[in-house]
Amino acid sequence: MVDLTQDEWVSKLQEDDNAVILDVRTEEEVEEGYIPNSINIDIYKGQEFINELDKLDKSKNYYVYCRSGNRSGQACALMNNMGFQEAYNLLGGFNEWEGEVAE
Asked: Which intervals hold domain Rhodanese (predicted)?
């Protein structure tokens, strides 16, 4: 797992042809806005979250965010334990996101 500032996260993401943006917030949080082209899997769903992660392509690079950076950090650590090679945590999360937002 690697913690990245927003600038580092965006810069790395733009250069990455193998990137997937993963939003681990709740559905209610997602309804308030999200980073475009992200997929949402709620980390609070416990085993269902793990089951959904298991379906993902482990050869991809995952750019993970939540509201503040805490849950996404946990998700990145979990993903590394599950065999994902590249998981990048957005420090500050969506609260501090200054990029494009979809609704």
From this structure: 15-102
Q: Domain for residue 101, yes or no?
A: no
Please give the helix or strand (H or E) that residue 86 lies within, else none.
strand 86-90
Q: How far apart are CA 11 and CA 68, in angstroms?
A: 20
Helix (H, G, I), strand (E, B) or coil at 40: strand
Hey, which residues are catalytic here?
66
| CB atoms near residue 44 (< 10 Å) | 11
Domain around 37: 2-96
Residue 103 lies in a domain: no
Q: C-alpha angle with apex 60: 29 to 55, nearest 5 degrees?
A: 65
Q: Specify the number of domains making up the chain.
A: 1
